[in-house]
Amino acid sequence: MLELLIKNGKFRSLLLSSLISQLGSFFTFMLLIVMTFERTQSLISTMGVTLASTLGSIVAGLAGGFWVEQRSPAKVMVMTNLLSASVLIGMFFLPTTMTYYYITAFLIAVFGAFSRPASSKLQVMLVPSEQLMASNASRQMLNEVVRVFGPGLAVFVLTLLPKDLSTVGFLIDGVSYLIAAVLLYSIGTFDKTSASDKGKSPTVKVPFVTRLKEGVEPLRAPVILAILGMFFFCIIGITGFDVILTAHISRSGLPSIYSGYVISALSAGLIVASFFSKYFSKLSLAIRLGLSVFGMGLGLLCLGLTANLYIMLGFAFIIGVFNVIYNISASTYMQQNIPLEKMGRAQGFTSSFFSTVGLLGMGVSALIGELLSPATTFLIMGGAIALSGFISVFTIHSATKRQQEIGQAQAVNM
User: Fold this and answer.
1) With 50 as the cut, is the pLDDT of residue 191 above it?
2) Are 45 and 36 in contact (CB under 8 A)?
């Protein structure tokens, strides 16, 4: 992983720009949540920020995938960073009303929906196939570092600033997006299509529905279907994890603020495991994907069985380790097996779909937690995730074995 970062300067610039822009995204989100709650003292109004952000991802997810396939991913990312900077700097000058807060959350999510598939496509263009696992490990570690420090940085800035100057936070955040845009611009421009498409005759205009079907066709492959199936259960079970965990800790007789320690332990597991990606990459695909999800589910289930903080910290760390193994392995497999010219559409479709599933997950978790208990929520969701992982071990093993047999048969016939 370190060797890739040292030798591949363009990927290093991409990673650094992603670090800054993602830090900006978390900074903005936390800034909006804190300022909204301080202004209204209403949980419902504050949840509106989350809802606006989720709706932005759902609405723009599919469109973002289509847009990226027709343009240079580097240029798309520069554009989205500049637009994000414009919105945030504009918030410094606009009246501090709830309407503007919700619009900002929505727009930043929309720009992110365009930026994410562009970033994934650009990564594949910059990194050789055999190094994708290491590059995904780098990005996973970066995501967790940002997740830990982003919200804290926003609160720290708000603490330093007088209340009548809190909008300066938007100005600071806007500048961070400008820096990210400059870093991306230094990478250079790229062709709109992959090298395999160069020299082909111009394509005729294809209807939207036809292009969508073509784009999602790779997602029907048995292994990818298994990956998405497991991800479905993970999204349903883990969306709202912070809220359910806080309630579980409180009902266990511990200060609710201790949930921050448990979440930090989970992030620590993710960060630590990222350094060892080259070792677990030697395991079979079925083991890496299926057993990692099984381990995540089992860890979540065990969280619901204990009221001891230290045991919770241990299980949270384990969940983080298994989570990073699944994330890196799934991302790498999909990057290697989805054609570059279809990657934007495939990722845009999955982004919109799973953002919608996330809303469902919030509702289901809240309902179970309210009717039964937070601990029961962990037991049910953890069991469902573990079962999906266990079944997928055999599904993926069978699918990969079939692919190998087909490949060997084709080789004999040649």
Assistant:
1) no
2) yes
